[in-house]
Specification:
By secondary structure, the chain is α+β, with helices and mostly antiparallel strands. It has three domains: 86 residues, 2-Layer Sandwich (Uridine Diphospho-n-acetylenolpyruvylglucosamine Reductase, domain 2); 122 residues, Uridine Diphospho-n-acetylenolpyruvylglucosamine Reductase, domain 3 (2-Layer Sandwich); 209 residues, Vanillyl-alcohol Oxidase, Chain A, domain 3 (3-Layer(aba) Sandwich). 28% of the residues lie in helices and 23% in strands. The strands form four sheets. Strands 12, 13, 14, 15, 16, 17, 18 and 19 form an eight-stranded antiparallel β-sheet that branches. Strands 5-6-10-8-9 form a five-stranded antiparallel β-sheet. α1 runs antiparallel to α3, α8 crosses α11 and α11 runs antiparallel to α12. The two termini are 36 Å apart. 52% of the residues are buried. Bound molecules: flavin-adenine dinucleotide. Flavin-adenine dinucleotide binds next to β3, α5 and β10.
Length: 461
């Protein structure tokens, strides 16, 4: 790379380009997962679409490997790249709500919290995940599951339109009538096809919710998981609820007598009148042993969405694995409980997020996101602040995953993959959509310029 080309590139950018010698290099390159330490040659901090085009063209002309960073939450750190160019979208924020159409225009640097904050003022929300610091871009392009999924679908199911910068530097819009094939691929196919510079979402009425966690001792986990499994499919879709195996956090405000206990939790959100939420939950809770504590109550939706943020600051060590689960058998539940008894740290966890309701009302081939016949999306995450525990939490996660994987479908949610996203696993995840994604990739990114992602490519037998 010639020094002059680099200087011209920097001069053409409106946003800053950070290099290894810059004082803020380490702060800017750091990712959410403290286990990942990547050193890009340069970081292009884009402020507008023109910056994105400039960065893409510069990388292509100089054979630089490119990574796209939105919120930087990706588990294996696919928002960065060693020795290449990180195209950092995190400064491109901005949310504009159209209350008449119930739509929301969102910049690719927004976190979920940015979107919730802006939409809540209008009594609206876009279905997304459960931690507010997660980037809306990576989450949407991989799918996006959360409390509103049962009623309103995946985040990607609510994507109406995207502006995209392609590998050749062209700017296109994708929606149901313009570049409809690209629009299909963006809804689940990840960052394979280009850099999204603007998202347009469908929003829904969400304001106060009846929500929060209920915790039981791990010795009740078998019963809780069985009853939850049997109850949820028949429950109103206004109720989003996931089940988890975890530890009662050893800190205030958790009851001192329960802190540090291995536990099973249901974390629920009812979007509707509080009395209805209480009545629905009472039906489930009435069949269950008394919990250690029940912290469900009425709260603004963004309060729920940021409830877990304090436990998961940037920089923790994370190793995770996911699977789609079609049927949660008693044998599978037993395997879960056995593994949870070996939780290696107080933050480590297993969650099962529901995949039903509105997700199933869209056809498997209607968007790239294929596994619409799953019942749950499972994540197992070994998490700890101490880098010296990286090996231990990784071994626990892999061991847990190996013990329960025989009860799972072959594929997993791309946003919960770590280093397991090989060709066969992606093929299993995308099923019949895989070949169509390969064709789309050949059309929009024939040189695989965008390859730092869960990469779509032809399978070689
Ligand atoms: C604490 C935590 C909680 C989570 N909770 C949930 C949850 O509730 N539900 C859920 O579904 N997922 C959840 N996730 C997973 C999350 O969806 C993924 O980590 C996702 O990759 C995060 O997106 P990001 O923009 O923050 O990531 P980044 O690391 O910035 O980007 C990840 C990848 O997305 C692509 N990408 C990002 N921006 C763009 C863009 N503008 N154009 C094209 N491609 C782009 C790129 O391929 C990039 O490599 C959670 C993750 C964490 C760490």
């Amino acid at each position: 790379m010639q020094a002059m080309a680099t200087e011209t590139f920097i001069g053409n950018m409106r946003g800053p380009v950070i290099r290894r010698t810059d004082v803020d290099y380490d702060a800017v390159r750091s990712l959410y997962n403290g286990m990942i330490d990547k050193s890009p040659e340069m970081i292009a901090r884009c402020t507008d679409v023109a910056d994105v085009v400039t960065a893409v063209n510069f990388a292509r002309q100089n054979d630089l490997k490119v990574a796209i960073r939105g919120g930087g939450h990706n588990g294996p750190g696919l928002g960065s790249v060693d020795d290449g160019l990180m195209i950092d979208m995190s400064m491109m924020k901005g949310v504009r709500v159209n209350p008449t159409a119930c739509t929301v225009r969102v910049g690719p640097g927004c976190t979920q919290g940015d979107v919730d904050h802006a939409t809540h003022a209008y009594g609206l929300a876009v279905p997304a995940g459960i931690v507010s610091t997660t980037g809306i871009a990576g989450l949407t392009l991989g799918g996006g599951t959360g409390y509103l999924t049962r009623k309103y679908g995946l985040t990607s199911d609510n994507l109406l339109e995207a502006d995209v910068v392609l590998a050749d530097g062209r700017i296109v819009t994708a929606n149901k009538s313009e570049n409809a094939d690209l629009y299909w691929g963006l809804r689940g196919g990840g960052g394979n096809f280009g850099i999204v510079t603007s998202f347009l979402f469908q929003a829904h009425p969400v304001n106060m919710v009846y929500a929060g966690p209920v915790f039981w001792d791990l010795e009740n986990a078998r019963t809780v998981m069985q009853r939850y499994r049997d109850f949820l499919p028949g429950a109103p879709e206004e109720l989003g609820a996931f089940v988890g195996l975890k530890t009662v956090p050893p800190m205030d405000p958790f009851p001192a007598e329960h802190q540090g206990k291995r536990a099973c939790a249901i974390i629920a959100c009812h979007n509707g009148p509080t009395e209805d939420g209480q009545a629905v939950m009472a039906k489930l809770l009435g069949t269950l042993p008394p919990p250690l504590f029940n912290w469900m109550g009425e709260m603004p939706y963004p309060t729920l969405q940021s409830m877990f943020d304090p436990f998961f600051p940037k920089g923790l060590q994370w190793y995770w694995r996911g699977d789609f689960v079609k049927e949660l058998t008693d044998e599978a539940i037993d395997a879960h409980v056995t593994q949870a008894q070996k939780l290696p740290s107080t933050l480590s966890l297993m969650h099962l997020y529901p995949i039903d309701g509105a997700v199933r009302r869209i056809g498997k081939g209607d968007t790239a996101w294929n596994t619409r016949d799953a019942t749950w999306s499972m994540v197992i995450a070994g998490i700890d602040p101490n880098p010296q525990k990286a090996g231990e939490i990784t071994r626990w996660t892999k061991g847990y995953w190996e013990a329960v994987h025989p009860y799972s479908a072959e594929g997993g949610y791309v946003n919960f993959m770590m280093d397991d996203g090989d060709d066969n696993r992606l093929k299993a995840t995308y099923g019949d959509n895989y070949d169509r994604l390969v064709t789309l990739k050949a059309k929009y990114d024939p040189t695989n310029f965008f390859r730092v992602n869960q990469n779509i490519r032809p399978l070689h037998s």
